Amino acid sequence: MSGLGLAVRLHLTGGQVADVTQAGRLVAGTSSSAVIADRGYDSAAVVAAVEATGAEAVIPTQKTRRVQRPYDRSLYRGRGVGENFWARVKQYRRVATRYDKTDESFLGFVHLASIMVALR
Questions:
Q1: CA separation for the pair 24, 7 (Å, rounded)
Q2: According to the model, what pLDDT value does residue 29 have?
Q3: Cβ-based burial of 23 (10 A; exposed 0-12, middle 13-18, buried ≥19)
């Protein structure tokens, strides 16, 4: 997501694939000052991938970890912008219910829905 809440890069995976496994792929090659994510993305590999791009990892650590990594709480409040983007995209029935049979047509409509959200 950009700072304006618009999609920068979309990647489609199977429903059984954890999002955290794709985080490194999504941040690679991007230029930003910070990457904001929720506790589900708290892993050493994700933090290393974010820092390799020169960005600050604004990811709270899991509560079960002994060593809590500090993060910028004021930047973390901006995570809702990305969440609101996906809430708007899921208002399109084809995205929410996944009527498309092929991955290409579904991802194409997700791109179209993202464009429609950006144009609002």
A1: 16
A2: 78
A3: buried
